[in-house]
Specification:
The chain has about 170 residues and is of the alpha/beta class. The chain has seven helices and seven strands, in the order αβαβααββααβαββ. The protein has one domain: Rossmann fold (3-Layer(aba) Sandwich). Helix content is about 35%, strand content about 30%.
Length: about 170
């Protein structure tokens, strides 16, 4: 099997998230599994629950991260956030990279679900690849507003190289 690299923008985002060995994390939109691989390599007693609406994204993540699935550190499901029901209120962090849900449509129900399931002191990390700079103000404004309406305190981080914008909501 070929070694799969982890893009610098994903490394930066996961590093910024400061994954702790006992974190319980939800990844929204796991795609090819690069972030899941990096996150799970830092977990010991913690767990990652990764979701994606795409069957191919789920399959790619499962294959790429098979050792973490087998070790019980990773659960991967094909589902969207709107229909997700996290069984326990125990998430310390939520992570999403290039998931447009938070800025292209009303996502009040999804963000309310996150607020309900993220433990006090926990955070939601939304990252966007700013390949279209003219969209950055809209991304930041809409995603921040959605998180704020649900009760999160907002921090906005901009990283110029690689071109990534991060929006962090803290509970």
């Amino acid at each position: 099997m070929a070694v799969q690299t982890i893009p610098a923008r994903i490394r930066w985002a996961v590093d910024f998230m400061d994954v702790q060995p006992n974190d319980h994390i939800l990844e929204i939109g796991c795609g090819p599994g690069a972030a899941a691989e990096l996150i799970c390599s830092r977990l010991e007693t913690g767990r990652l629950f990764a979701i994606d609406r795409s069957e191919s994204g789920v399959d790619r993540t499962r294959r790429r991260c098979a050792k973490f699935v087998e070790a019980g550190r990773l659960t991967v499901r094909q589902i969207d956030l709107a229909t997700l029901r996290v069984p326990v209120k125990r998430l310390t962090k939520v992570f999403a990279f290039n998931v447009n849900l938070f800025w292209v449509r009303d996502c009040a129900d999804e963000v309310a679900l996150l607020h309900e399931r993220v433990l006090p002191g926990g955070s939601v990390y939304l990252y966007y690849d700013a390949s279209r700079p003219e969209q950055v103000p809209t991304m930041v404004e809409k995603a921040s507003a959605a998180l704020q309406l649900a009760g999160f305190r907002i921090s906005v981080v901009e990283q110029k190289a690689p071109a990534v914008v991060g929006i962090i909501g803290r509970r």
